[in-house]
Design a protein that fits this description.
With 139 residues, this protein is α+β, with helices and mostly antiparallel strands. Helices cover 14% and strands 21% of the residues.
Length: 139
């Protein structure tokens, strides 16, 4: 994916119950979340976006992601960036695995993670983010 998640303010996704204790959250990248739980979107990504020369396809894969067309500056003379200040912004998500009948496993937001809100806790909430409805916010 053309995303450098190391630049994000927090880990994008955490999934409950994938550790040996079953109670902790395990950090997952966007790619790992798609590959593990969203098979159809992952297949769509691989079939269309990864091969589209105007999106992710690269002439020389050895040059890295900076060659991807989607990461190039847009062909405009002026670009306005509008952003809010002091507004809660979603930066992280806490999921739990939902198994319903014979369906494949899927992820749902875990409101049980709200108990970690505003508490600095090692790997679970290292920045002490406000968590509401399974979503971590920064302001």
């Amino acid at each position: 994916f053309p995303v450098n998640e190391e630049q994000f303010p927090d880990i994008v996704g955490r999934v409950q119950g994938e550790s040996s204790s079953g109670k902790r959250y395990v950090s997952k990248s966007s790619h790992e979340l798609l590959a593990g739980y969203a098979h159809t979107p992952k297949e769509y990504h691989d079939a269309y976006y990864a091969t589209d020369p105007f999106f992710l396809a690269q002439d020389d894969p050895g040059k890295g992601q900076e060659q991807c067309a989607i990461l190039q500056p847009p062909p405009v003379s002026k670009l306005w960036v509008i952003m809010g200040v002091n507004l809660p912004t979603e930066v992280s998500y806490f999921y739990k695995v939902d198994k319903r009948g014979k369906e494949k496993e899927r992820l749902v937001l875990d409101p049980g993670a709200d108990k970690l809100s505003n508490k600095k806790d090692g790997k679970l909430n290292p920045r002490g983010l406000q968590i509401s409805g399974g979503m971590g916010f920064e302001t």
